Amino acid sequence: MKLVSFHLMPYRPLDLAAAAKHRSAWVVLPNNLYDPVKGAEEYESHIDALVYAEALGFDAIGVNEHHQTAYGLMPAPNLIAGALIQRTKRVQIAILGRALPLVNNPVYIAEEFAMLDNLSKGRIIAGFVRGIGSEYHASGANPYFSHQRFHEAHDLIIRAWTEPGPFAFDGDHFNLRYVNLWPRPYQAPHPPVWIPSQGSSETVAWASHPDRKYPFLVTFSSADLVARYHNTYRDKAREYGYEAAPGQLGWACPIYVAETDERARAEAGRAVETLFNDFLRQTFEMLMPPGYTSMASMKNFIANRRALGNVGRLTAEALIDSGTALIGSPKTVLAGIEKMRDRTGFGILVALLQFGILSDALTRRNMETFAAEIMPKLRD
Amino acid sequence: MSAETTSLNIRGVTVKLHRCGRGPALLFLHGAGGVPQWLPFFDALAEHYEVLVPEHPGFGGSDDPPWITSIPDLAMFYLDLVEEAGLDGIHLIGNSLGGWLAAEILVRDRARFRSLVQLAPAGIRVKGVPCGDNFIWGPEEALRNLYHDQGFADRILATAPTEAQLDVMLRNRFTVAKFGWQPRWFDPDLEKWLHRIKLPALVVWGEDDKIMPPAFAALWRERLPDARLVMVEACGHLPHVEHAALVAGHVRDFIEGVAR
Predict the structure, then answer these.
(1) Which residues of B fall within a CB distance of 8 Å from A299?
(2) At B10, is the secondary structure helix, strand, or coil?
(3) Chain B residues with CB-CB distance to A68 below 8 A
(4) Residues 157-176 (B) with a CB less than 8 A from some CB of A
(5) Residues of chain B predicted below pLDDT 70
(6) Residues of B in contact with A289 (CB under 8 A)
């Protein structure tokens, strides 16, 4: 099992009561709720936590991109990756990922990743995402063209990494007379590409295609949904005529381990509730701007939402029961991971070991306990 | 009066068309909401004109060809449409997105058109005066922000839409995003060519428009070479819905007085 210690870098000092008065913790949350003095401390703490993961034996450390939100302070995750490279020697650094459709020249993303790959002498994992719906409100990028721009940007970046330059790129959305990367990526043919996703069938079919076989990471879903998406990927791979390897299936999940279930819940319960209820709080219109998914997917999403009704605040108990978060004793957490492994054969665990308002001290202890009690059991 | 619904096939694209009345052609270009129903405003005008209300490609019951990706594309398509349908001497009316479309048509080719009525059109902007963000509003909020008189919203909210209506609303919303998301509700190249619209024009704007700011009205009057402006009191973004008789009267006076 490949183990990634992943971080969202939330702004924990957020005044949650003040934030609750606004439509969302994204896009429209007034930035006078951000205090740069506290924020600077947050960056330092969060980077320290990621760096510590190397000493604890994780295979990779991970960051990601979100814009205009207290949920994550990394609108430019590659800047954080640059800092992490300087403070680590061995771990891979996974940027999960850069949102391709939001930029007007994807060559800049190809260049950034190539730079990081050289700076780290080949330790970079390049995640490609479309960005969640709110990103289209924040950036102004048109969600209607999100899929087209993603695929075209992807093709351009892969060509930029692998084809001798200069060459011209003629697309519908991107047109460039000269594509000629200096530097080229350190890894050959290019850094591994991972696809974090919330499970759209279009993305599964695309990622699992034999030309790509990109590892597919399911993020923030109930255990049943994670299993379903993993197995959709497996089925799709079989349709293509091959068997998906464990390293093609990833699960990104908030995890907290302590001596006992009771203690784990007492220490992390409120933190995981703030992640899902306060930091992740977005309206339907923000999550699902028109055209962001196919019409059929959006209708499914609307129908599911209607079936669920108004669920109100998610409790830690509900999040644990549904397997959306793994919180408990080493035995409990390990059982949750092993159960998923039995169901899907997944081989990449992206562990979110700090989440919501979880403090530095508890985060550190969580990481240490995970490394001592869980990690050895997952080594194949 | 009852409207007839037919369809046109233009370059392989089927366009649903509602029509009613006899007389000079009056072509109404709908806004982001499409044509959910035949309006009293259309009836009032159908007493004097042949009122033609097409559903734009990508909306309602019309086809959605992938090669129409912008309002300028749609404008070129409509020039094909009026030519192939043999329409001439057309009085053109546009509301919101349809007003933007009307202007894009006329800056390209006004030969078949006699006059222009703009009802709170999109298409140009005043820097520093943002439009209402109907993409971030929830459904009820978006509906309420269309009207000054909340009675209109209340009546619509009182009846749950059917599945078929919900499908059309979703489809329309996708198309509206395609055309209007970025830049939001305007074409940076439109304003500088508005002087090409050498036709009598009437601009109508609700004083309480929460989507297209009333501050935009003066810019339209300034840029169109021959325009007069009517501001409507106690009125939101759909003057022809909220004040159907009043606005139909203005339109008729305008067409009879200036443009006929």
Answers:
(1) 167, 170
(2) strand
(3) none
(4) 167, 170-171, 173-174, 176
(5) 1, 259-260
(6) 135, 177, 181
Residue found by looking up tokens 């079989």 in the block: A238
Token pair, residue A201, equals: 């069938």
Give the SS3 label for residue B134.
coil
Q: Is the peptide bond before B183 cis (omega within 30 degrees of 0)?
A: yes
- Please indicate whether, in this complex, the C-beta atoms of B138 and A285 are within 8 angstroms of each other: yes
Alpha carbon of A141: minimum distance to chain B alpha carbons (Å): 7
Q: Tell me how far apart the alpha carbons of residues B203 and B212 are, in angstroms, rounded to a whole number.
A: 13
- Residue A307 confidence (pLDDT): 75
Per-residue CA distances from A323 to A216, A225, A338 (Å): 19, 10, 12
Of A28, A284, A291, the CB nearest to B174: A291
How confident is the model at residue B259, as a pLDDT?
A: 57
Report which residue type is found at A329: S
Residue of B nearest to A287 (CA): B136
Find which of A144, A283, A302 to mutate to test the B interface (most B CBs within 10 Å of its CB): A144
Instruction: Supply B82's token pair.
Output: 């009026």
Q: How many CB atoms lie within 10 A of CB B227?
A: 19
Q: How many angstroms separate the CA of residue B160 from the nearest CA in chain A? A: 14
| Six-digit token string for B86 | 């043999």
Cβ pair B83, B77 in contact under 8 A: no
Up-side HSE of residue B147: CA atoms within 13 Å toward CB? 16
Query: Which residues, given as ranges, of chain A have pLDDT below 50?
Result: none
- ipTM of the assembly? 0.95
Q: Compute the distance between CA of residue A280 and CA of residue A221 in angstroms, rounded to an integer.
A: 13
Angle between helix A36-56 and helix A360-369 axes, rounded to 10 deg: 10
User: Chain A: nearest CA to B68, how far in angstroms?
Assistant: 13
Average pLDDT over all residues of chain A = 96
What pTM did the predictor assign? 0.96
Q: Could you give the residue ranges of the DSSP H alpha helices within B128-162? A: 139-144, 150-157
Query: How far is A170 from chain B, CA to nearest CA, in Å?
Result: 17
Dihedral sign from CA coordinates of B16, B22, B28, B30: negative
Lookup: tokens for A198: 């919330």
Closest among B186, B191, B29, B197 to B106, alpha carbons compared: B197
Strand partners, A95: A63, A126
CB–CB contact B136 A295 (8 Å): no
Report the amino acid identity of residue A246: P
Contacts 24+ apart (CB under 8 A), A231-237: A231/A343, A231/A344, A232/A199, A232/A201, A232/A204, A233/A204, A233/A207, A233/A208, A234/A344, A234/A345, A236/A204, A236/A205, A236/A208, A237/A208, A237/A213
pLDDT of residue A123: 98
**CA atoms of A228 and A188, how far apart (whole Å):** 33
Instruction: Return the bridge partners of A129, or none.
Output: A99
- Please, which contacts does B244-252 make with residues 24 or more away whose CB atoms are closer than 8 Å? B244/B39, B244/B40, B244/B41, B244/B44, B245/B40, B245/B44, B247/B41, B247/B119, B247/B204, B248/B41, B248/B44, B248/B45, B249/B44, B250/B202, B250/B204, B251/B45, B251/B93, B251/B117, B251/B202, B252/B44, B252/B45, B252/B48
Cα separation of B88 and A206, whole Å?
A: 49
